[in-house]
Amino acid sequence: MKTRILKHVAIIPDGNRRWAIANGFKQVWKGHEKGVERLKEILKIAYDLKIPYLTLWIGSFDNLTKRPPSEVKVLFKIYKETFQKLIKEPKIHREKVKVNILGKWEEILPLDVKKVVQKLIESTKNYSRFFLTFLLAYNGTDEMLECIKKIVELSKREPNLKITPDLIKENLWTKDLPPVDLIIRTGCDDDPHWSAGFMMWDSAYSQLHFTKTLFPDFSSEEFKQIIDSYKKRERRFGS
Questions:
Q1: Which domains does the chain have, with CATH numbers?
Q2: Is the pLDDT of residue 183 over 90?
């Protein structure tokens, strides 16, 4: 059997809060801190496996606007600290990793966190070996609505505008990313679901993997096993 090429993996790291509760922590944000530790391991494996594109949904717009302010405040602190470390992380620069953050983060992040995000994007903008994308304050439904609005505005200037798949792709937040080959969602083996339309356009032909493992317990070994399993699957593209 021919080994399948894996270009783009997306991860929905679910289960941080449930992990904290299950492990007896009163502060649910302890799960988010543990999740950051796990993220570091996953990034290392992704680079070792030469996966060019890795996308992680680290916060939906709904979560960051509807959860208790005290929890959101801690999340903002975790984002800031994580991004500051990435700016200084030697491997990011050695491996030429271009980091981008997509979503409505500019609308809701505090000014100090936005400055760190902007610095991270700026410091890696010229890299092109690996592409690490964080979806922050992101909902897939918002992405599609923004895309439609842009195309409507274009049609006002170009009456004969043809609506094509390429035109839609060009107006997505994720316009610079290739289609997702594999999507991994942790923490929901018994409740597989798609929150807020995750990357709807780019996941049309994605392979899906749901695991009951909560993200803070999602090991590098399990990640590698999922990747190996993907490479053995037959992909039909609807045929």
A1: 8-139+179-231 (3.40.1180.10)
A2: yes
Q: What is the largest CA-CA distance in the chain?
A: 61
DSSP-assigned beta bridge partners for residue 185: 12, 210
The catalytic residues are 14, 63
Angle at 14 between CA 12 and CA 19, to 5 degrees: 155
Kindly report, residue by residue over 38-91, the tens digit of the pLDDT: 998 999 999 999 999 999 999 999 989 998 898 899 999 999 999 999 999 999
The secondary structure of the chain, three-state, reads: CCCCCCCEEEEECCCHHHHHHHCCCCCCHHHHHHHHHHHHHHHHHHHHCCCCEEEEEEECHHHHHHCCHHHHHHHHHHHHHHHHHHHHCHHHHHCCEEEEEECCHHHHCCHHHHHHHHHHHHHHCCCCCEEEEEEECCCHHHHHHHHHHHHHHHHHHCCCCCCCHHHHHHCCCCCCCCCCCEEEECCCCCCCCCHHHCCCCCCCCCEEEECCCCHHHCCHHHHHHHHHHHHHCCCCCCC
- Give the bridge partners for 118, in sequence order: none
Residues 6 or more apart from 88 whose CB is under 8 A from it?
Answer: none
Q: How many residues does the chain have?
A: 239
| End-to-end Cα spacing for the chain | 19
pLDDT above 70 coverage of the chain, percent: 95
Q: Given the structure tokens 């409505």, which residue do they identify?
A: 104
Task: Count other Cβ atoms within 10 Å, centred on residue 198.
Answer: 24
